[in-house]
């Protein structure tokens, strides 16, 4: 009888310790998550990239400054992709214009379309271009509105890599 009680207590201790280990693993929690369709109309969810540094790039093909920043983001994506960097372009409103812009600019990173501007509102985007830097823990490390220099882009990128 005592042996069964001892085995029962040991089983409870092992179970409690096991659950503690499972629930104590760090989880990436995104401050803001979204799902938007890419240019092939496939859904892309931000939290799919949990644990990776992310740059969200809100842009419009009609934006002059966006046209100047896009090649820099392409270059940074190509350089730091091997380090896990994810760049997601969030095109504003017009899928056909965005599709043409992506082709002209030879954008290599994923691009989604925010047709109804819901994600823009959620991220406080009022002016373009707008960059959001998200660290590996899913927290917003910095936001930048308006045109920035390549050096500033690299500086912000360094804070999340």
Please outline the helices and strands.
Blueprint: H1 2-24, E1 35-37, E2 43-45, E3 54-59, H2 64-80, E4 86-92, H3 95-105, E5 111-114, H4 118-122, E6 130-134, E7 140-145, H5 150-158
Parallel strand pairs: 3-4, 4-5
Antiparallel strand pairs: 1-2, 3-6, 6-7
Report on this model:
With 161 residues, the chain is α/β, with parallel strands linked by helices. The chain has a single domain, classed as Glutaredoxin (3-Layer(aba) Sandwich), CATH 3.40.30.10. The protein contains five helices and seven strands. The chain has helices at residues 2-24, 64-80, 95-105, 118-122, 150-158; strands at 35-37, 43-45, 54-59, 86-92, 111-114, 130-134, 140-145. Strand 6 and strand 7 form a beta hairpin. The longest helix has 23 residues, at 2-24.
